[in-house]
Design a protein that fits this description.
The chain contains 15 helices and twelve strands. It is of the alpha/beta class. It folds into three domains: 115 residues, NadA-like (Rossmann fold), CATH 3.40.50; 127 residues, Rossmann fold (3-Layer(aba) Sandwich); 80 residues, Rossmann fold. The structure holds 1,3-dihydroxyacetonephosphate and iron/sulfur cluster (SF4).
């Protein structure tokens, strides 16, 4: 039962003490979050991995790319563990390294390698944290950088200081929403299609491009609609609508605010009592906020329930299993990034950490 599992997890944690740190993403179910030493958004969890250099094991309750990132940022003697290896991210899977290298080759053919008069490269690759270590490594090798939903605008500024234009992997919505907020027009952000031509006159499209968007998306956040926001406003005239920037652009435009999971949590925390929130993000976070802040009215824009099915694969049973393995001296489900990938991937991540105060 749930209580038996919770007791097993607590007992293993008590035995392991400081040798262990458990990190949990905001989208994890409560039965997992209650055991986490640190809960945060993907940027905070990357920093949390850096902040525990003495833990022998970092158990990451989140998805595969987050555990890879923790492995990149942690020490060589530390083991990063993903309780269920099937916890991937469908968006991260939408950019594979072969496709990315092909796109880069096509674009490099068009733009060349020559910097402009200000020394800016023709093209800078930027990848959302929600991508494989191989894509991060590609960015590291090609003058690029990683961003998260909490620092995407700052990272794009970094990229435009060094490049004339950007190719953004894999989330088209985060890329579009962020670029739009920076004043870039929709015509200047074409969606990449392999084997040109793009829509319209390819040469014109590519000459005008500022941010070339990869065709990825989050299947959870894609479900939110403008109609849901309109309904929330009709039912609650003072509602404050906050959505995650992985939502499609019309949804972000119709909302009052957009921000990372931690942005959403902070907004709820800082609001005066009695605020009504309609939130467009994963249901576990929304329901937890609703329970933690009973002084507000908090509901999810999508009342048919939208869990992230891969985040949900971290069942407490797996958590107990990997922790009891550690107690017995057995490391289960370790995530290790190959050194040839890890080195350049770390370069791209460190650029992000340095660019983000
Ligand atoms: P955050 O960076 O806001 O935690 O988002 C991660 C994620 O996977 C959202 O779908
Ligand atoms: Fe990936 Fe979307 Fe799940 Fe986030 S919510 S982990 S982007 S599938």
């Amino acid at each position: 039962s749930d209580e038996v599992l919770a007791d097993r997890i607590r007992a293993a944690k008590a035995t392991l003490g400081d040798k262990l740190v458990i990190l949990g993403h905001f989208y994890q179910r409560d039965e997992v979050v209650q055991h986490a030493d640190y809960v945060g958004d993907s940027f905070q969890l990357a920093n949390a991995a850096l902040a525990h250099p003495n833990a022998e094991a970092i158990v990451f309750c989140g998805v595969h790319f987050m555990a890879e990132t923790a492995d990149l940022l942690s020490g060589p003697e530390q083991a990063v563990i993903l309780p269920n290896l099937a916890a991937g991210c469908s968006m991260a899977d939408m950019a594979n390294i072969e496709q990315v290298e092909d796109a880069w080759a096509e674009l490099t053919e068009i733009y060349g390698h020559e910097p402009d008069a200000d020394g800016r490269a023709p093209l800078i690759p930027v990848t959302y944290m929600n991508s494989s270590a191989a894509i991060k490594a590609f960015c590291g090798r090609n003058g690029g950088i990683v961003c998260t939903s909490s620092n995407a605008a700052r990272v794009l500024e970094w990229a435009f200081e060094r490049g004339q234009r950007v190719i953004f992997f894999p989330d088209q919505h985060l890329g579009r929403n962020t670029a739009k907020a920076m004043g870039i027009s929709l015509e200047q952000m074409p969606l990449w299609r392999p084997n040109l031509p793009l829509g319209g006159n390819t040469e014109d499209v590519l000459n005008d491009a500022k941010v070339i968007l990869w065709n990825g998306f989050c299947s959870v956040h894609k479900r939110f609609t403008v109609a849901q926001i309109e309904r929330a406003r009709a039912e609650h005239p003072n509602v404050r609508v906050i959505v995650h920037p992985e939502c499609p652009m019309p949804v972000v435009d119709a909302a009052d605010e957009a921000g990372s999971t931690d942005y959403i949590r902070k907004a709820v925390e800082a609001a005066p009592d009695g605020t009504v929130f309609a939130i467009g993000t994963e249901i576990n976070l929304v329901q937890r906020l609703a329970a933690e802040y009973p002084q507000h009215t908090i509901f999810c824009l999508d009342d048919v329930v939208c869990p992230c099915s891969t985040m949900y694969r971290i069942h407490p049973g797996y958590l107990a299993w990997v922790l009891e393995g550690l107690v017995d001296g057995v490391v289960r489900n370790q995530i290790t990034v190959d050194a040839s990938v890890a080195e350049p991937a770390r370069v791209a991540l460190e650029r992000m950490l340095a660019a983000t105060p």
